[in-house]
Specification:
mainly alpha; 76% helix
Length: 70
């Protein structure tokens, strides 16, 4: 099976690569969902602020995971 996912080579290069790739993709999906929530909320509302706060935390985690793998 051929995939265009940039995370696929991890499964081949690292013993736990599939697990790492799955986690990275989950993080990306979470980020996309939060962005959709932010876009559909009115600026300044509680939902907007909460989604933005969660998005910032999720992206920091994703960036850290991408550089450390943990």
């Amino acid at each position: 099976m051929v995939s265009d996912s940039p995370a696929d080579p991890l499964g081949e290069a690292l013993p736990d690569g599939d697990e790492l790739a799955d986690r990275a993709l989950e993080q990306e999906d979470t980020g996309k969902q939060l962005l959709e929530r932010i876009e559909s909320s009115d600026v300044g509302t509680a939902d907007f602020e909460q989604a933005l706060t969660e998005f910032i935390a999720a992206m920091r985690e994703h960036i850290d995971y991408g550089t450390t793998g943990s």
